[in-house]
Specification:
heterodimer; A: mainly alpha; 71% helix; globular; B: alpha+beta; five-stranded mixed sheet; 13 helices
């Protein structure tokens, strides 16, 4: 497969997944904002969380200053100036898809193109109270894209690059959501099990569609350790770090090729750490430290995938020795 | 030469007495039985279909990246099998002669030695590529894909308007138009034996395989596009996916030891045939325009070494230039020893004093074109232009007369077309696509372009023209 094609497939999937995750993060913030403010703090405090999770706080502050519900929502959902807004992600996904129309099925293209056309129609008539519906719509379109992809595309490496993009992005997002909310998972000065904590944990679980799964698996009160365990180590939880790295590793094995050796090694290492990890060790390292470490590794893995497959490499040059990079 | 009258045109559906011609009879009956509002509804459906599929083209001069639909007309244009067979023979003959001409002028130049065409006409043409002199191409084919624009002026009279031998486009519309018609009107196809065109991509693939360097048994073929902002990008992507080959941009290719490779996820892979939709000028910054970022450094060198074949070949433009066009009937006699089956439109060369004088005196009745223009840009249609426009154009001609040709305003035939007031005749042309490999092939039909405003003769999509499905009925 052409490197540029693989690059576009990978980013098409990442952009769609990112749009979905941004919708999830905003949705939770909206739900939380319905709580009495003293449970979470000031409005600004509450609305910094989504900005921090998606890493666009700096851009926001330049434009709007203090975090406010309406402007944060607008900036993260519809602002074309924000490269990680839902609008920008869906636009980029469509441009990626357009560049590789020959490599995706016409059904996939139609979903992405129709999403883009519909988005432009929605943007012009968006009102505040319509945002929850909008977030649901974004999630639906993302689900539809994945369903159509699995239902129509040939199971060759094109699909592997789509999966790679989807799950790398999802792992990154779940880790970020957890990291920004980690303080509520630590024993707090409030009574553990208080109403606010309960609500926050619930919101966190809901934002990654894990509330029902939690109920099913644990059947008792929400505890920080279990929430972390579910979202980090359980491989049967579709948005957990472990489940995502399962898919990333499998995709890399399918793609294969001599140049991907280092990417496969890194993915295998990250996967093994999750596969054999214990939640006690996560907490003794410190959840924040653990997640920071995970995000760093995920970023490095993403770069390595870029080097190995997505950029233009002239293999008539000798392949550089990568042994020196192996110590982490 | 005298200009022909433009008022009387050939109506392809109705004879002069208003009776429906035999070939349209079934369609006309079907149309007459259609409940009111059905066609309008189908039009809306077609538009939605095209928009959702993203069958759009970019219009130069509008905001960057803006996409528009080419208006699709839902009334088919119909040819009979006999009519088509005559056209087919004429098209094959013409393309055979054009390829023979290109091979000749890049080798021994017999046609110049014989005095049929002047050395100046060929060698001073900016589209003549010195680099190609003496380069041997497989099957001696330069124009693998030719789009020959035809207009009809009477029942049995067709003129060739121009030959497109560089990167002719539009074939994806021919295919999508058929596809759309079959989705919208399955019952019409059940009642008519319409010759299929769907196998065009397969035919193109065969042609490209035959074009491969002779020593390569299983060639790697790619389609090369200038990128997703090109006006015909949809078509490039469409053809690549229909043929099951990679769609590459210049940045995806590199040259190593005079061979061309593409960057893949599994390392470099050699490429043998490039169906390029990039103009000569932009192909190779080392050989042509140094500022081109669309091309591949060293590509021309690899091509001239015989390690890769470009379709169409470099330098084919010298044969489709509007001033060379005048000589095509002579080429057919010279190379094939045959009488031309398709005629040229009578043409004045403004480089000739007498022609220039006549044309300047008759501008309001003529069509004037730039010799190297294409796409309907920069042409004057005398009868539909204002006095001021004509005078402005006169100044352009006087500044550089040799860069223009003029033709009578042809009475293009008209076909029934869906317009606001209902179904009414509108002027059309036809672009069949002729493929040259070891043999010459074409699918029955082509792209019919239609001028949607009443009386208009400009069918180019860039100028507001639309397209129609073109049917050739089996006997």
């Amino acid at each position: 497969m052409l490197s540029r094609t693989a690059d576009n497939l990978f980013w098409m999937a990442r952009h769609i997944e990112r749009a979905e995750n941004t919708a999830r993060v905003l949705d939770v913030a909206h739900r939380s904002s319905l709580l009495p403010l003293d449970m979470e703090g000031t409005e600004a405090y509450l609305w910094y969380a989504p900005l921090n999770i998606t890493g666009c706080a700096a851009g926001y502050e330049i434009k709007y200053g203090l975090a406010r519900a309406d402007t944060v929502t607008l900036y993260m959902a519809l602002d074309p100036d924000n490269p990680s807004s839902i609008y920008s992600c869906l636009k980029s996904a469509r441009e990626n898809a357009r560049s590789v129309r020959g490599a995706i099925t016409s059904e996939m293209w139609e979903v992405i193109n129709a999403t883009w056309l519909e988005l432009n129609r929605l943007v012009s008539r968006m009102q505040r109270e319509k945002f929850p519906d909008f977030f649901d719509w974004v999630k639906d379109r993302s689900h539809l894209f994945r369903g159509v992809t699995l239902g129509t595309i040939l199971k060759d490496i094109a699909l592997s690059f789509v999966k790679l993009g989807t799950f790398l992005e999802r792992a990154d997002n779940t880790a970020r959501i957890l990291d920004v909310k980690y303080h509520i998972l630590l024993p707090s000065v409030h009574d553990v099990g208080g109403a606010a904590d309960y609500y926050q944990w619930g919101a966190l679980l809901r934002s990654v569609s894990a509330f029902e799964a939690y109920r099913k698996i644990y059947r008792d009160g929400i505890s920080p350790r279990r929430v972390a365990e579910l979202l980090i180590l359980r491989d049967d939880m579709p948005r957990s770090l472990h489940a995502c790295m399962n898919e990333v590793e499998a995709a890399l094995i399918d793609i294969n090729g001599s140049s991907g050796r280092e990417a496969r090694r890194r993915a295998g290492e990250q996967h093994a750490a999750l596969h054999f990890g214990l939640i006690e060790d996560v907490f003794s390292q410190g959840l924040h430290e653990y997640l920071t470490d995970f995000l760093e590794h995920t970023d490095l893995l993403g770069r390595e995938i870029g080097n190995a497959y997505l950029s233009r490499r002239d293999h008539f040059e000798t392949i550089p020795v990568r042994g020196s990079m192996q110590v982490q | 030469m005298n200009a022909k009258p433009t008022k009387n045109y050939f109506n392809e559906m109705r004879a002069e007495d208003g009776a429906v011609r035999e070939i349209y009879r079934r369609y006309a009956d079907w149309l007459a039985d259609l409940p009111d509002g059905t066609l309008e509804r189908k039009c809306a459906e077609a538009e939605l279909l095209f928009r959702r599929l993203g069958i759009t083209f970019a219009v130069y001069g509008e905001a960057a990246g803006s996409e528009r639909l080419i208006p699709f007309d839902i009334v088919p244009r119909i040819f009979g099998a006999g009519e088509w067979r005559r056209l087919e023979l004429g098209l094959k003959q013409r393309v055979r002669a054009l390829n023979a001409f290109l091979h000749d002028i890049y080798h021994d130049q017999e046609i110049i030695k014989a005095g049929v065409i002047s050395a100046r006409q060929v060698l001073d043409n900016v589209l003549y590529r010195r680099e190609m002199q003496g380069v041997d191409l497989p099957n001696q084919v330069y124009a693998h894909i030719a789009g020959i624009d035809l207009v009809r002026v009477a029942e049995n009279d067709f003129y060739v308007l121009e030959d497109n031998l560089r990167t002719p486009s539009g074939v994806s519309y021919m295919l999508e138009n058929r596809n759309t018609m079959m989705r919208l009107f399955p019952e019409l196809f059940a009642g008519h034996a319409v010759e299929p065109v769907e196998h065009y991509p397969q035919m193109l693939l065969e042609t490209l395989r035959e074009a491969a360097p002779t020593h390569v048994s299983d060639p790697v073929i790619v389609v090369m596009t200038p990128g997703s902002y090109n006006s015909a990008y949809f078509e490039h992507a469409f053809l690549a996916s229909q043929m099951g080959v990679e769609l590459v941009e210049g940045q995806d290719l590199f040259v190593h030891q005079r061979k061309v490779y593409m960057y893949t996820t599994d390392g470099p892979q050699q490429v043998h045939v490039i169906y390029r939709r990039v103009d000569d000028d932009f192909l190779d910054p080392l050989a042509f325009r140094p500022d081109s970022t669309l091309g591949v450094p060293g590509l021309l060198d690899a091509y001239c070494s015989g390690n890769v074949v470009l379709a169409n070949g470099v330098g084919a433009g010298v044969a489709d230039d509007k001033s060379t066009y005048l000589y095509v009937p002579e080429m057919i006699r010279f190379y094939l020893g045959e009488a031309p089956l398709l005629s040229n439109v009578p043409t004045w060369r403004l480089s000739e004093q007498d022609d220039l004088k006549y044309v300047l005196a008759h501008l309001p009745e003529l069509v004037v074109k730039e010799v190297q223009g294409s796409g309907g840009y920069g042409m004057l249609v005398g009868p539909t232009s204002s006095k001021a426009e004509i005078e402005a154009y006169r100044q352009r001609i006087l500044a550089e007369p040799a860069t223009f040709i003029a033709q009578p305003t042809l009475a293009l035939s008209a076909c029934p077309t869906m317009v606001e007031s209902g179904v009414a005749p509108r002027h059309v042309d036809l672009r069949p696509f002729v493929l040259s490999g070891k043999e010459i092939r074409l699918v029955p039909g082509g792209l019919t372009r239609v001028a949607l405003s009443e009386g208009s003769l400009v069918v180019n999509s860039s100028q507001g023209g639309g397209t129609k499905d073109t049917w050739v009925l089996e006997d």
